[in-house]
Amino acid sequence: MSTPRIQKRSPLRPPTKSRVTRHDDWGLEPGRPDDGTGGRGRATRHGARSPRGSDIEPERLQKVLASAGVASRRQIEEWVGEGRVLVNDQPASLGQKIGPGDRVKLNGRLLHLRFGAQRAPRVLVYHKPEGEIVSRNDPEGRPSVFERLPALRRGRWLAIGRLDYNTSGLLLFTDDGNLANRMMHPRYEVEREYAVRLLGELGDEQFRTLTEGVVLKDGPARFSSLRTEGGEGVNRWYRAVLPEGRNREVRRMFEAVGFTVSRLIRVRYGTVELPPRLKRGMWLEMPEADACRLAGLPVPKKTGPEKERPPKLRRTMVRK
């Protein structure tokens, strides 16, 4: 995997309509506004013109909205069921196909959608510290992971999975709902690996129970892998792997066998590992080729020689 750029952003500094900082990815000249067209009319991310509207086949509503970064497919399906999505001012239905001539609204707001142009997803790798919530709205006013992320001109960042308030480690974000669905849906069984610190040492019986299965309130659960990582005093470290991501599942599994988790760090999600040089509160953007591989898309071919740009670092202020 090629070396990505690391950036940090202050949660106290509101997003501004700045000049292009990613012109190398979009094929734009430095200093031009990043409007997604590069002054050449409708364009894909790699500079190719999009097909004309008359040449575009209708696509399923969930796929179009997810590709635009509106939300994951599962979330969109819930919104359709709740009647929050309208197509041509009529309630949408699951599986409905739409094209460039259709007007789609979410909660009464018209969405500007692209058709027929497959674009590479953007993926952020974030090292979440303890004390941040993975939500945009929190009644308690706690710091949000979304306050750290760079602004998007189109769509919004979608969290791939969640980490609870007291859990740190690897958290992925994307602007592509299809990729988010691919990484989160239980049928894909994408592994999550955690470093777990316990108060006390597991015995053979607890090991067997956790790997064969325990019964939680929301159904049975089991670690596909569990191994000892050492420790000092009463603290013992373990590595645990899960093929799913239910709410507080790791903590609840250890509680089911009588142990308390004193620290929990996610170190891997699928094929993506937490980079050792990525400090807490920092994010980096995954290279385009790696993001395409993660989404199962063809890796774009480079049309000319490119120079590797050095990482750009920015200071960040942590909200108290």
Description:
A hairpin with a 2-residue loop joins strand 12 and strand 13. Strands 1, 8, 9, 10, 11, 14, 15, 16, 17 and 18 form a ten-stranded mixed beta sheet that branches. The chain starts with a strand and ends in a 25-residue tail after the last helix. About 15% of the residues lie in helices and about 25% in strands. The C terminus is likely disordered. The chain is an alpha+beta fold and about 325 residues long.
What's the number of helices?
A: 7
Which consecutive residue ranges, at least 5 long each, have pLDDT under 50? 9-51, 306-320
Q: Quote the average pLDDT.
A: 79
How would you describe the oligomerization state of the chains in this entry? single chain
Helix/strand/pairing class, anyone?
Answer: alpha+beta
SSE string, helix = H, strand = E? Answer: EHEHHEEEEEEEEHEHEEEEHEEEH
Main beta sheet strand tally, sense and closure: 10 strands, mixed
Report, as a whole number of angstroms, the end-to-end distance. Answer: 35 Å
- Considering DSSP H and I runs of 4 or more, what fraction of the residues is helical? 10-25%
Key features?
single chain, 320 residues, alpha+beta, ten-stranded mixed beta sheet, four-stranded antiparallel beta sheet, 7 helices, disordered C terminus
Topology:
Elements (H helix, E strand, L loop, with lengths): L4 E3 L15 H4 L32 E2 H7 L5 H9 L3 E3 L2 E2 L5 E2 L5 E3 L2 E2 L12 E6 L29 E3 L7 E7 L2 H8 L7 E8 L4 H9 L1 E3 L2 E3 L3 E6 L4 E8 L6 H8 L4 E9 L2 E2 L9 E3 L2 H8 L25
Parallel strand pairs: 10-16
Antiparallel strand pairs: 1-18, 2-5, 3-4, 3-6, 6-7, 8-10, 8-18, 9-10, 11-15, 11-16, 12-13, 14-15, 16-17
